[in-house]
Design a protein that fits this description.
Layout (H helix, E strand, L loop, with lengths): L2 H6 L6 E5 L9 H5 L3 H9 L1 E5 L2 E6 L5 E6 L3 E7 L2 H6 L1 E8 L4 E8 L1 H12 L1
Antiparallel strand pairs: 1-2, 2-3, 3-4, 5-6, 6-7
Length: about 120
């Protein structure tokens, strides 16, 4: 678990599931052109967590993008996978909140497990 999540958990809040990037980010052209610094920074700084109260997703090192939404305000967690994504178990997690808020997070490893963990939290 990353430092952002650890520092921002409320009382009685526990991490239920923590997601990570898929290994495919290491073999993309962007990674090769940056001498693998880009995926290294991404894996060390980005956090994707489901707690018993909310979903927290933080990306970025210098400029941050932080998405936090309570579980009760999330309408659905969708998964978008290509054929390769299904074969190698990665995809884009799309969170749709009440009021039409829509956030997507690509290249997440085991996105079906992420959705399952969220559904278990809701019940």
């Amino acid at each position: 678990m990353g430092t952002y999540v650890e520092n921002n958990l409320s009382r009685n809040e526990k991490v239920v599931y923590e997601a990570h990037y898929h290994w495919k980010i290491w073999i993309e052209l962007k990674s090769i052109l940056t001498l693998f610094i880009r995926p290294l920074i991404m894996t060390k700084t980005d956090e994707f967590v489901i707690t018993n109260k909310r979903v927290i997703m933080k990306t970025g090192l210098v400029s941050r993008k932080i998405f936090e939404m309570t579980v009760s305000h999330i309408e659905s967690v969708n998964v978008d996978q290509t054929i390769l994504g299904r074969l190698f178990s990665y995809g884009t997690v799309i969170i749709v909140g009440s009021g039409g808020t829509r956030e997507s997070f690509p290249d997440i490893a085991n996105p079906i497990e992420f959705r399952r963990a969220f559904m278990d939290t809701v019940e």
